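2024-03-11 09:14:02 DEBUG pipeline.ingest accepted 1 chain
2024-03-11 09:14:02 DEBUG pipeline.ingest length=201
2024-03-11 09:14:03 DEBUG pipeline.predict start
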Amino acid sequence: MSGDQGQPGTLERAVETTLFASDEPMTIDALAAHLGGLAPGDVRDALTALAAHYAERGVQLVERGGRWHFETAPDLAHLLRREKEQVRRLSRAATEVLAIIAYHEPVSRAEIESIRGVQTSAGTLDVLMEAGWIKLAGRREVPGRPVIYATTPAFLDHFGLASRRDLPGIDELRAAGLLDPVDEAMEASMRFDPDDAEDSE
């Protein structure tokens, strides 16, 4: 990190201040624009340096879905757990739908139902949208032009994922004992071909 004795340099301090003051995670381009049109490469270097600086501290600088923000270090999260007693508890249906969207986005409601083998209520999708974990992602270019859904940066952030590439595979989930209650839906989603659902719409 630039600066004397390992202290942050001017750019790092500006990026640090901006992120602390921001209500939401920020992309490199947004940071660069906010700081007066800096080169994105310089901002990325500053972020990398800051991430290293905070790596062993109580808060860490992380990237989730291309957006940067500070969050509590994983090993200290339990200290704040009492502040988050209202953790969203998803129904089995909502959990299945969220898993399907995460692994196959963008997907339509018909495609979700094709995987689950049962109808999906609008209420289930509403719950996930209200949680901020899924969003409308346009329409499928097939007859009827159904709405399609995708996950959000808030989904990645909540589950500690840098990108969808970090989603665990079925073997990892089974080894961790995390398949219940979504084992059947998850395994089905791994085998799903969206093209088949498109043909049936």
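2024-03-11 09:14:41 DEBUG pipeline.report The beta strands are 59-64, 67-72, 107-108, 134-139, 147-151.
2024-03-11 09:14:41 DEBUG pipeline.predict end
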